[in-house]
Amino acid sequence: MTELTGVAGWAVGLMESLGGPGAALVVGLDNLFPPLPSELVLPLAGFAAGRGSFSLGAALFWTTLGSVAGAVVVYLAGALLGHDRMRRLAGRLPLVGTADFDRTAAWFAKHGGKAVFFGRMIPVFRSLVSVPAGVERMPFGRFLLFTTAGSLIWNTVFVVAGYLLGENWPLVERYATFFQYVVFAGLTVAIGLFVVRRIKARNGV
């Protein structure tokens, strides 16, 4: 059996020593520290379940609990920041104005449920989508519902894949990393187009 090292070794060791709560802790940290990606830790939870640290059902329960708990912390941080303070901060950003913030807030008020649900299944946005939900004070019960549903679907795919693949769990991370790069590329293009349009508008082009 391959000896795991680095983050993988630390995560599996924590899960094996603490059981399900260890899986919840590792996955919850994904929301607070994005450099610890769920695409890595979720297959590891399935792998740990396959090694007998806990059952597959327990892996799904605890990882989803960790995902939701981490999202709630970020939601509360957004709520603490608040709409008015966030609007003032947006007005001070280069190439961004309060009108942009107002349009975004209006869009989120209309589509916030879908944004939270689908955002929980997109790299990068998984952690960030809880911020506007908190800033705009989305009803907490609604936030919990969409966060739990989206997290459960995302977690199930990766945990079950890690469980079935066993020692070959890194295959999951490899394909997930490719998806993550696609998201990063799309985000970079979108930001680039936004900046170009704003510069042209300011120069009267």
Automatic annotation (TrEMBL):
This is DedA family protein. Residues 36-163 form the VTT domain. The chain crosses the membrane at residues 59-82, 143-166, 178-196. Pfam families: VTT_dom. Belongs to the DedA family. Keywords: Cell membrane, Membrane, Transmembrane, Transmembrane helix. It is a multi-pass membrane protein. It is found in: Cell membrane. It comes from Amycolatopsis melonis. It comes from the Bacteria. Its main location: membrane. Signal peptide: none annotated.
